[in-house]
Design a protein that fits this description.
Layout: H1 5-8, E1 18-28, E2 35-42, H2 48-60, E3 67-70, E4 73-79, H3 80-132
Antiparallel strand pairs: 1-2, 2-4, 3-4
Helix pairs in contact: 2-3
Length: 137
């Protein structure tokens, strides 16, 4: 997850939302009369840390249908009749929970990074103070 922290820790991470279902990309599963790969467009391509947290959240929710992330899309495998009644509300709930968890993750990482920087600065001061007492003449 740390790949995204440098770019995201400044509070500039936009909240990720589901913006629409992409009917052009949505396709029926090969060999199935009822199952589809339903593509939901996201407001931004989610960073890898967000994707990991979303997968954990979806699993925690114990939803029976598989969801993957493909670029800027959530791809849900389900029957079309399930989308409006159960699957889209669950996806929205998972996205909101993931946004909150990702913001918390970013805050934790920023705090840890600040602590590491403070420790490094103190170490440098100690080394420089010791170095200034040395005489080489």
């Amino acid at each position: 997850m740390s790949d995204d922290v440098k770019d995201s820790s400044e509070g500039t991470v936009p909240e990720i939302r589901i913006t629409r279902m992409n009917a052009d990309k949505t396709r029926q599963d090969i060999g199935s009369a009822t199952m589809y790969h339903v593509y939901f467009e996201l407001s931004v391509h989610p960073p890898s840390g967000w994707r990991d947290l979303f997968a954990s959240e979806w699993e925690r929710m114990k939803m029976p249908r598989a969801v993957t992330i493909d670029g800027g899309f959530l791809v849900l495998q389900c029957a079309l009749e399930e989308v409006a009644a159960t699957q889209l509300p669950a996806l929205k709930k998972a996205v909101v929970a993931t946004n909150a968890a990702y913001q918390q993750y970013l805050q934790t990482e920023a705090t840890a990074r600040e602590h590491r920087e403070d420790v490094w600065k103190q170490e440098r001061k100690t080394v420089e103070a010791m170095g200034s007492t040395l005489r080489f003449e």
